[in-house]
Amino acid sequence: MVEPTLGAVTIPHLLEKKARGEKIVALTAYDFPTALVLDEVGVDIILVGDSLGMVVLGYENTIPVTMDEMIHHTKAVTRAVRRALVIGDMPYFSFHQTEQLTISNASRFLKEAGAKAIKIEGASRRRLKLIEAMVEAEIPVMGHVGLTPQSIHHLGRFKVRGKETEEARKICAGAQDLERAGVFAVILECIPQDLARRITAKMRVPTIGIGAGPHCDGQILVFHDLVGYSTGYIPKFVKRYADLQAVIGRAVKKYADDVKAGTFPDDTHSFHRKSQRKQ
Ligand code: KIV
Fold this sequence. Notes:
Blueprint: H1 11-20, E1 24-28, H2 32-41, E2 45-48, H3 52-55, H4 67-80, E3 85-89, H5 99-111, E4 117-119, H6 125-136, E5 141-146, H7 152-155, H8 165-181, E6 185-189, H9 193-202, E7 207-210, E8 218-221, H10 223-226, H11 244-261
Parallel strand pairs: 1-2, 1-8, 2-3, 3-4, 4-5, 5-6, 6-7, 7-8
Helix pairs in contact: 2-4, 8-9
The protein binds 3-methyl-2-oxobutanoic acid.
């Protein structure tokens, strides 16, 4: 594991950023080389999201993702990170049984994988009690309201939440309940921007938006969406800053052409015996 640096991002830093009106930069990562780049660039929060199920494991949704898969990927990320706050995402059914099992699963992110906090979807009464119990067990928790992808079978499809007054009221109340339960930040996913602005103004802890407009205290995107290396449906809120899929496709095609033509490997990419070395 890489040695942590003195300037590492902590939860108090995130609260200070909100107080100063300084935006928090967050992204997902699921592997060592990506985490290295994100950390080097100065991203504040790296979330090992259960989105990894769809983005890098090829599942249809996040439901099949297991604790062991989350721990495996979180370990790869924390091995790379010196500065950013790494957060592990509680996958579906890791917190739906007993309080004891929930705390035990959450603690694996800290003890085994080296993360500094966990994220959990939802703000039901039972979820709030679990969050209080995790905070009591010294596990920092990030909340997540609005569109919660683990509810896919209830929702039918991923869609904007909180467009209607009653649902907007519930999302706002949920975010405030999460704050009272002890979370250090809340993800607001796929909600109207004026609702995100209202919630952000009411909260002491930072809001991190994804598809929630510009008024949140920070922003998060799925890294693979940002760099154009994801397949399938791309939501309206994603801004693509690169087209890695095309870049990789072109490189692999060139390699295949070179192999077929016998032009790779050439002399400079081959080893030689001492006696055969060129002068
Ligand atoms: O799983 C994930 O990556 C997430 C973010 C998109 C917020 O929950």
